[in-house]
Amino acid sequence: MLCALWVHAQKIDADLLRIKQRMDSVQHFSAMVTLNLDVPFIQMPTKNAEVNYQHGSGMKFASKDFVMLPKRGLDFSMNELFKHPFITVDRGTITRGGKMLKVINLIPTDGKSDLVMAVLYMDTKARHLVESEINTRKDGSYTLQMQYQPGQTLPQNVEAAFAIERLKIPLNFMGKDTKIDRKKMRSMETKTGKIKMQFRYRDVKLG
Fold it and tell me: Is residue 2 part of a domain?
C-alpha cells in the first residue's frame, strides 16, 4: 500500500501540465498595472507600475513613484514553480465561488530550490491556476489569488498576501504621499499585508 502511494506521488499532475502548457504559449506581454496596498499601518494612495514578461525570465515590474514591491510573490507566470524538478500529490477538490477546483501539492525534489511546497488550486475546465499558497525557505509564505476574464490566458486581477517582515520590505521609500503609523506597526504581532493588482494588457504575444 505504501509503495503504491509513493508511485502515485511521483506522477506529475496532468491538469497542472495542461495549465503550464497554456502559460508557456505566452511568449511575451507588457501591461500597465494598478496597485493598491492593504496594510493596517500604512496609508498609501493607488500606485501604477509597468510590467514586462519574457518567457523563461519571469515578470519584471517598474514604477517611477515607488518601489514597494517584494522580490517574490507578484509573479504569476509559474516560472519559479517549474525551475527545479518536483513531484505533485493530488489533494482532491473543493468548491469556491460556485466553481469546482482541483487541489494539488507541488513538492520540489531538488535541494537547490528555495521552494518548500506549493498548494495549487486549479480550474481544470478553464485551464487556469486560480490560487497558490507558496512556502519558501528564505522569504516565508505568501499566497496569490487570480481572476480571469472569460477565454483569457492571463489574469486581470491578482491579489498577493504576504508577511511583511519576512519579505524585508523597507518602509522608507514608498513616496512622500505615504503615511506610516509606526506605533501601530510595532504593536502588531504579525505584520501581514496584501497587494491588489489590476492588469491592463497592451502587448501579448502567443507562441
Answer: no
